[in-house]
Amino acid sequence: MTDSWQNRTLADSFGTAASAYEQGRPEYPDEAIAWLIGDAARVVDVGAGTGKLTRVLVRLGRDVVAVEPDAGMRTLFEAAVPGVKVLNGSGERIPLPDASCDAITLGQAWHWVDPIAGSLEAGRMLADGGVLGLVWNTKDQSVDWVRRLAEITGDAVGEIMANSPEPPPYGPPFTSAEARVWTWLRQMTPGDIVAMVASRSATITAPDAERAAVLASVQHLLTTHPDLAGRDVIDVPYVTVAWRVTR
User: Which end of the chain has the least Cβ crowding within 10 Å, N or C?
Assistant: First the structure.
């Protein structure tokens, strides 16, 4: 697979589907993020999107600044996470001073970052003892209907990285990485599930006919699978994979 950070068409597509992203994408388990950042007081959330991870950091009582390159996503972020500053920047270019935070987090985002340039920038930003925290929510394909959903959509580029037996790629000044995994359920409506699929980069950038066919197939699954048909609320199983990367 071509390194996903090099595919700027996919990486830069999310702003056109920001509302679907906000509706369809989950937050992260509080316990996963608490483990990911440890006792870090000052956190920079990079690739913050509409603030799914940022909201957890705020709940945990941390001092948070967000960084997001897409103007459309920043607009929804400001409405969803009032009181948290969101800056225009990226994993390779964080507009903050050296050694100004204790943790840098990237939720569903490291696969869009050049791992060498991103590691150097994180190393510049982090105070001594700081952590680079990488986290992904992925589909739990041990469940039949989720596996069938994955057959329709394919695996997202982030899921491919998250589900690899190897750590995510990183470079100096970091030297080690430790992982933990959480399984959990999120209650979603059928409309939320369709929005989640619509917010994926592969769906956003697909030709109109292909995108319509994917979304129609998802609708068909939701109305015909015996575990889903006729249900207004569905328990959607997720697997959260988190990596603590340190010097």
Answer: N
